[in-house]
Amino acid sequence: MLDAFSRAVVNADASTKCIGGDDLASLRSFVAEGNRRLDAVNAIASNASCMVSDAIAGMICENQGLIQAGGNCYPNRRMAACLRDGEIILRYVSYALLAGDASVLEDRCLNGLKETYTALGVPATSTIRAVQIMKAQAAAHIKDQPSESFAGNRLRKMGSPVVEDRCASIVAEASSYFDRVIAALS
Amino acid sequence: MKSVVTTVVTAADAAGRFPSSSDLESVQGSLQRAAARLEAAEKLAANLDAVAQEAYNACIQKYSYLNNAGEANSTDTFKAKCLRDVKHYMRLINYCLVVGGTGPLDEWGIAGQREVYRALNLPTAPYVEALSFARNRGCAPRDMSAQALTEYNALLDYVINSLS
User: Fold this and answer.
1) Which residue in A has a C-alpha nearest to residue B44's C-alpha?
2) Nearest-angstrom CA–CA distance, B40 and B149
3) What's the pTM value of the predicted model, to 2 decimals?
């Protein structure tokens, strides 16, 4: 497993170079944005169970067949497995966001995931839809701009000090990890 | 590759939980020290050739028998390889300063080190001498800030201990 720093080291070692000058600039900005990153991970971790249950519920609302007899979220036992898998995927995305590198997500979660789901007969389109919902939720929570019209009286705000750009770089990075999950499943 | 972040993530994954606030706290601690580490890495990268050359000269001066025929520093090829080895350790120290842990040294320098030097019939004392020279050569604030020098020296000590 690598993080942003060890990724730079592994790349430099491939050409037996030292890390200096320009290579350090991106790492310095990683350090400078460190608190934003930790706030973003905290935003996901603190809202995890809400995000997962909303994503799975949203996926089912759009495809009621899943909870009919013979559907993949019927009975409760399989619905519970679905919720568990949603949480696992979100957890590995939060690890990748903390590390600033996708290797933990790829090695420990996505490697072989598609094959497993195919063997178990889990529909890829539904899984991808749930991941897409989690991606939108993660962006909203990191920006601390949850949708008031959707959330209603259950609106939750982190209150973290996001500034004008609303942590755009971290939002983009988190979205890229969700995109990796979607790419791995499709 | 062992670093504060990967250690934290491994522990959280083993327990199957999201990163907790204490996890984030230890990552934050590592990031706070990162400025000094990256400064040391930058200064070392900029002067690595000179640092390695001085360290190499110091160890050959102390162990001058290495220049005798048949010894490890006797031919031009051997001399170049000795200097290269010192540079190799310095580069790994540069990596460790970037990562913020001893992962690169452990995985690429120290693992198997004893066996290799024994197989090639190389003495480790000259390496210790070269690295000890570098250990005492750095000076704050001439070369880098005091905190950066502390991080750099700690890694040199780590290699010296692994060789002795």
Assistant:
1) A20
2) 7
3) 0.88
Interface test with chain A among B5, B43, B89, by most A beta carbons within 10 Å: B5
- Per the structure, the count of domains in chain A is 2
Please give the single-letter amino acid code of residue B137: R
Q: Is residue A124 domain-shared with residue A134, that is, in the same domain?
A: yes
Q: Which fold has domain B34-163?
A: Globin-like (1.10.490)
ipTM of this predicted complex?
0.87
Does A94 reach chain B within 8 Å, measured CB to CB?
yes
Indicate if A138 and A62 belong to the same structural domain: yes
Q: What is the pLDDT along chain B (164 residues), one digit of tens a residue?
A: 888 899 999 999 999 999 999 999 999 999 998 999 999 999 999 999 999 999 999 999 999 999 898 888 888 999 999 999 999 999 999 999 999 888 899 999 999 999 999 999 999 999 999 999 999 998 888 989 999 999 999 999 999 999 98
Q: Is A42 on the interface with B (CB under 8 A)?
A: yes
Q: Concatenate the DSSP letters of all residues of A82-141 into one string.
A: HHHHHHHHHHHHHHHHHHTSTHHHIIIIITTHHHHHHHHT--HHHHHHHHHHHHHHHHHH
> Per the CB < 8 Å rule, is B17 touching A28?
no
> Which of B8, B18, B35 lies closest to A31 in CB terms?
B35
Query: Three-state SS for A112?
Result: coil
Range of the domain at A137: 34-185
Looking at the fold, whether A107 and A172 belong to one and the same domain comes out as: yes
